Amino acid sequence: MSRARGPSLIAGSDEAPEGVHPTNKASRISSPGDVVALAALACGGVVGLALLPAILGVRCVRGLYQAGKKICSKDPVLDPDMAQDCDGIWPFSEKPGGGGAQQFPEGTKRLAGYVKMSDGVRIAVDVLLPPCAQGADGTFHPVPCVVHMARYWRAWEMRWPIRELLNRGEPWDFLLGPWKSALLESGFAVVSADVRGAGASGGVQSVVWSPRETQDTLELIDFIVGVNQPAGRQPWSDGQVALFGVSYDAGAAVRAAAHKHPAVKAVVASFLFGDIWRELFPGGIMNRWFLQSWCNVNSRLDNARLAAIHPFSPLIMKGAAPASSRKQLSRCVSEHRGNWDLMSAAGSIKAIDDPVAIGSGETMTCQNLELFANPLPSLDGKAVLPALAASQLPTLLISGWACVTSGTACAAFSALAGQHWRLLLGPWNHGGVQHVRYCRETKLLKFPKAKAVQEFLLYHMPRQGFAQSSVPAWLASPKPEVHFYVCGASPAWQHSTEWPPKNVVKKQLWLSTSQLTWTKDDLEHEGSTQLPKATDLVRYKWKASAVAKGRALLFETSVCPTTLAVIGSAVLTLRLRSSKDQDADIFAYLRERPPDGGDLVYITEGALRLSYRREEEAPDHEKAADPHSSDSSMASFGVVPHHSYRRQDIQMLPAEDSWTWERNCSAWCAHLFESRMQAGETTTARLKFFPVAYRFRAGSKIALVIAPDDAAHYAPNPLAGPHPPFICHSTSEQSMLWLPIKEQQLSL
């Protein structure tokens, strides 16, 4: 990417003081809003004290009830292996010292200010300096720095007296504060900037992850290390830079790292979106809940509408931390009104190649946001992730089994990993906010992922005069390594130098009437089951009543005699017999029936809108992440499908128009119609599940739940009607579930 003019410091003025500068701690009461907030909190405190005895009484009664229920329960004795499905065996288990969950380490110094980009837009920047970077006489000692481009505010300013309880009165980052604290403890400077159109920065976001955003990141690095800067390198920088981000911020980090800036020495990308269509429109169905929630949060943050986030938010928060005067902050926030409306664009597209207008007046498609195969002129015709691999930068990818980005992480590592690449896959949802509790026997604890980032960057960007006491075992080899969490295993953390791990092969289960069988000898000569109507709200907690009421189909194996580990993406191949509906959705859930016969345990899921069933040859990165099949004669049915999702490939279900006259016929005609529908045209549809690593317990059952909708999360199918297709499961028309199974047992 060409950068003809470098970034510059803002000329000193009331609106924008020069460059980054030390911040002054805010006075206790600095605005009328503080007075109102203090009065409201005082009233709330009085009410809370009055209700405290009743609250404590209720909690005591509830605790006694739960304890008695546990003693009297008929649950079996916990499997000692399952008791280890917690963070007790996490290799980075040391607790960080000095800082903490709500404050930076003692002695951290914060500088704040604006850096003007080459197009004149002001970017708000915080520089957090560890004690080792500060001299006694006010000078600085150069240290490596970690650059973070923040989409969701680089820091939040709190009201008094709440701010006295957080980070010693300084602004705090509620999303990445603990990560930054770990980096500061290791002696890194942390440079955190609001992306244009967000937080305290000016400008407009014309589209997500725009080329201009990437150029901002590169120009900020130039500012730090002194490229095209009359004043040279910043006094606190030793010229080494790492890029770091989570979720959206990870996309910003990877796009900048791919440009091979000479100062960049490593990149850490957590929960990276690499194929936005297949992640947010899985199976061609819009994940409306995620997109709507994401867009609502962005809009409220960009326009500083704290009350829209929560009615009580203005009582404890002021907003994004200012980089200079509040007058300048207000001016920058007012510019955000022109930000691109992502939700409107998402609602207007029906295929991956549908064009949408962006804020710059140009058009784009979802394919332009893909990181594996979308060539960029600024990268000499390479796509982002191949360019990153060619740069030979040490790369740490982090994702979770309960996150849609896990597929991107697995595929990137499988196809592109070079020396000093590491992949961590844990039982986390998006952003690593939650450790997912898969079974009752597991503990619900958090993992110190920041510790892994800390160790990775210390190894690849050592500070002058600072040496690690020992090289962490997981970083000792230059070969790429993946460390993944097998839910239910003991020890749960496993590692491999490749993905998928060795000895993982796909084995098929055949669908039969309410059953999953390991052999097709159990199939009926003729058999099919109609998909339920898309009229009921599908919930994730499945009980027998959900199937009994016709809201979903349930297929189960017989009892598993031994443990069985599934590692990777399962595939569901369905033979469908047509009905009268033009289209239908398939939501498939892989589950476990525990040995005690209790509620089904959620493991992973996949989805497909049947009109998008057209496939094309999978790209190399998807092939690399797909294990081989154990049955070579049927291997093509178990390969992970790659649907084109192009508008020209949309294909309605093969329904016969000649049947429409029978809609209002007599009972005899209705019976005839059902017979003809059973004999309708068949088609094949295949869908893949999000990858997972899970150990089925001995005595449990493998379960497959198939539902017609997930109204709580996904956009409904406008063409789905009262006559969905039939799922065939006979000797002549076979439907199969392919599971990637580790042939040799894990070290359990």
Gist?
With 748 residues, the chain is of the alpha+beta class. Strands 1, 2, 3, 4, 5, 7, 8, 9, 13, 14, 15 and 16 form a 12-stranded mixed sheet that branches.
Largest sheet, if any? Answer: 12 strands, mixed
In percent, how helical is the residue content?
10-25%
C-alpha geometry: globular
Return Rg in Å: 28 Å
From the N-terminal CA to the C-terminal CA, the straight-line distance is 50 Å
User: Could you say which structural class the secondary elements and strand pairing correspond to?
Assistant: alpha+beta
Could you tell me the strand content as a percent range? 15-25%
Average pLDDT confidence is: 82
Number of strands: 29
Low-pLDDT ranges: 1-5, 10-17, 69-99, 657-679
Helical run tally: 17
InterPro entries: AB_hydrolase_fold (IPR029058), CocE/Ser_esterase (IPR005674), Galactose-bd-like_sf (IPR008979), Xaa-Pro-like_dom (IPR000383), Xaa-Pro_dipept_C (IPR013736)
Protein name: Xaa-Pro dipeptidyl-peptidase C-terminal domain-containing protein
Keywords: Hydrolase, Membrane, Transmembrane, Transmembrane helix
Pfam families: Peptidase_S15 (PF02129), PepX_C (PF08530)
